[in-house]
User: Fold this.
Amino acid sequence: MTIENLLFFAKGHIHSDHAKILLAENLSKNPLELLNCLNEEVPQDIVELYKKEVLALEAGQPLQYVIGNVNFYGNHFLVDKNVLIPRFETEELVENTINYIKEHFTEPVDIIDLGCGSGVIGLTLEQKLSPKSVDLIDISPQALTVCHQNCGLLNSKATLIESDMFAKVEKKYDVIISNPPYIKTTEDIEPIVKNNEPSLALYAGEDGLDCYRKIIKDLPNHMKDRCLVAFEIGNTQASAIKQLITSTLTNVIVEVKKDLSGRDRMLFIFKNLK
Ligand code: GLN
Assistant:
């Protein structure tokens, strides 16, 4: 079968943009290149795999799981149904955190990523900053298996710990970062997310704040004297999370930041930094 035949096959099943991205990925080409080589014969094993993947997409699976990897902040990360698919907002959280670390710390930092999932946050910080240490924490052993593979791909020296947030952690850190689950259990979310991504990575109790509560109560034991905490948050949660922080920590500065679409999506705590 040729590239043209396969794109034609996909036409009856999925959006043509997805069809091109998927085929390009399988042939290690750029999607735009495909149209210049429509008559190229595709090896039989790729034909079969492609057809299976087209049907998986048609059945409602997310493209990222079907392809099996995503680009996050310039690196490829493996993803499967055991980990959340990283979102653009999380790249913004990482970008802002990198800038704050560069601004406020001169020595290499100790970093912890709570609820690391595939490891995108902690591993990106490791790539960009050469920190002193990176600890990647998740409650899900299946997620940690994916994270471990990503560590291998990136030659990471990070330490993986199976733990419910800080439960099995003793150290103190310069930088504590998390994109925890923060969706209310009663909230209606897109079916493609609800039906495919791990509910453990999405939901956090009736008000969506359970994980922030869990993290914030333990912050006093894990923040070094000078410390930056960075959270991704739901766009309506800023004031409730601020309250949790001010009732637990004294002498810190809290800053809420908007994402590119103007919604409150990041919260930073500065201890002895500003
Ligand atoms: N830290 C991972 C990410 O940002 C996983 C987050 C989660 O599972 N809630 O993609």
Strands lie at 69-72, 75-78, 110-114, 133-138, 159-162, 173-178, 223-232, 252-258, 264-271. The longest helix spans residues 88-104. The chain has a mean pLDDT of 97. The chain has eleven helices and nine strands.
